Structure formats: structure tokens, C-alpha cells
Fold this sequence. Notes:
Radius of gyration: 19 Å
Number of strands: 13
Cofactor: Fe(2+)
Keywords: Iron, Metal-binding, Oxidoreductase
Protein name: cysteine dioxygenase
Enzyme class: oxidoreductase
InterPro entries: PCO/ADO, RmlC-like_jellyroll, RmlC_Cupin_sf
Amino acid sequence: xxxxxxxxxxxxxxxxxxxxxxxxxxxxxxxxxxxxxxxxxxxxxxxxxxxxxxxxxxxxxxxxxxxxxxxxxxxxxxxxxxxxxxxxxxxxxxxxxxxxxxxxxxxxxxxxxxxxxxxxxxxxxxxxxxxxxxxxxxxxxxxxxxxxxxxxxxxxxxxxxxxxxxxxxxxxxxxxxxxxxxxxxxxxxxxxxxxxxxxxxxxxxxxxxxxxxxxxxxxxxxxxxxxxxxxxxxxxxxxxxxxxxxxxx
Length: 249
């Protein structure tokens, strides 16, 4: 009897499980992350249950488990969050954005995140903290302190595109703005866990010139910004149901 071929998403899960082990004393090597990224490059919308109808802005409340008869104005559509796998060492999830939807500037403390744009286009703006930390008291804004960060990414990503951010590089603090209807498959390792010090914090960025700073003749104001932590914003987001191939964990 011929053994049934494993699905692409099962193979991706297995590689994640191999890469992010609970007994590891060190983060995965850059070679291991690049291997995972290369495999993620091969994953397409159909591999996670996304059909052509999911790419339409007028799809109602998203393609996962919601009746296609539901129609709402584009401006009123939520981002659809779909959990593919949630575990101790990594999380796999999908975000489906209607046009112009935004996930504001937020961080991934101590985490590595791989993101694959499955369809559509979105603008990514991302920062990494300047080290050693440069923190100032803020009198010009309502925030008590601001911290200096360097711009790492400011571009449009179009499917198929895979990106990686690391705990200290690659744009660990980022925001997404959908240019078209789009979907992103994320792998977060380790996942958010507030008790372990991995809380999702949100930020507002201010131009470097907003606050006084020692002049550095080798730096460009456009490359830096002051980030102020803000209260978690009210993001219009709903949960969807994963409809792709079953994953054996």
C-alpha cells in the first residue's frame, strides 16, 4: 500500500517542529532559519485553503468559515485572523487584510518571525532598536519616554514574498498596511507569552528631529525615529476557521 503524500503545510509544520525545539539552549542557526524560509517560499494560497474568492475585497468578513452571502462595505471589513497551529515553541497563523487595513507598529520581543505574503501587496515599515538603548524623557508629547530606533524596512511587499525578522535585526518593530486585498502566513518563534516576557507592545513613531539628540555627522535623520509606547489600539479583527489540509502534530 502506497503511503499518502504529506501536504505542503504538514511538511512546513514538521520543519518548524524540527527547527524550534523546546529543549534547545540556543536560538536556531541562521542556516536553519534560511532553510525554513526557503521552504516557506514554496507555500501558496491553496496550500492553506485559500481560494480565488478570498482575494476579493467584497468577500464579507473573510474567506474562512464565513458565509459568502454576507457583504459589507470595504471600509467596514475586519482583518481576519486564522490560527493554523499554536504551540509552546512556535505559532503558525494567517492574516487576511482588506484593502487599506492596518496592523499598527508593534514588537516581537525575543522572537524570530517569518512572514510569507500569499497574495496581494502590503506596505511594511519596520524598525530595530538602537543599541545601547537611547531613551529620553518626552516633554513634547503625552508619552513619558521615547526610545531611538533605526529604520530597517520601508517598502511594499508583493506576493510571493518571504521576509524574516530577528530579535535584534530585520525590523523587529513593524507595521503592515494593505495596498490591495492580501494575506500573510506568519511563523512566530517562540510565540507571544506575557508571563515569559514576550508581550506585544504597540508604538507611535516620531521623526528624529522631534526631540533633541546629540548630533552624529554619520547619521541621517530619515534613518531614525523616536518610538513611544502606546496603549493597545482597537484593531478591527475577527477570527476565521482554518480550512487547509489537516496537520498532524
